[in-house]
Amino acid sequence: MSDELPYMENEDGEFAIPCQLKISAECVQQGEFCEGKEEAREWVEDEFWIFSGEGYFCMQCNEQVLRNISNIKPKNMI
Ligand SMILES: [Zn+2]
Question: How many structural domains does the chain have?
């Protein structure tokens, strides 16, 4: 696993993983700040965030993506 994920760092030197998409109105924007990158990553995985290969996005945005996909589905497929 590479360590190239986008992390946010606060004034206390804690890390959080931002949501990559931020397309949902209910998007949580970022994970909780944790002591280390490893813990920040565990936090989002505990919340069932989706790993995209370059970063993570939250469940709310995942649902929004799925809604968008169903909206653009051609009508003749139904
Ligand atoms: Zn999100």
Answer: 1
Residues 41-75 pLDDT 10s: 999 999 999 999 999 999 999 999 999 988 877 76
CA angle 12, 25, 33 (to 5 degrees): 15
Q: Which residues of 42-60 are buried (b: 16+ CB within 10 A; e: fewer)?
A: ebbeeeebbeeeebbbbbb
Q: What's the domain range around 21?
A: 8-73
Judge whether 78 lies within some domain.
no
Is the overall model pTM greater than 0.85, yes or no? Answer: no
Ligand 1 mean position, distance from CA 75 (Å) = 28
Enumerate residues with CB within 5 Å of ligand 1 (an ion).
Answer: 19, 27, 58, 61
| Residue 46, domain member (yes or no) | yes
Residue 2 lies inside a defined structural domain of this protein: no
In tens, the pLDDT along 25-41 reads 999 999 999 999 999 99
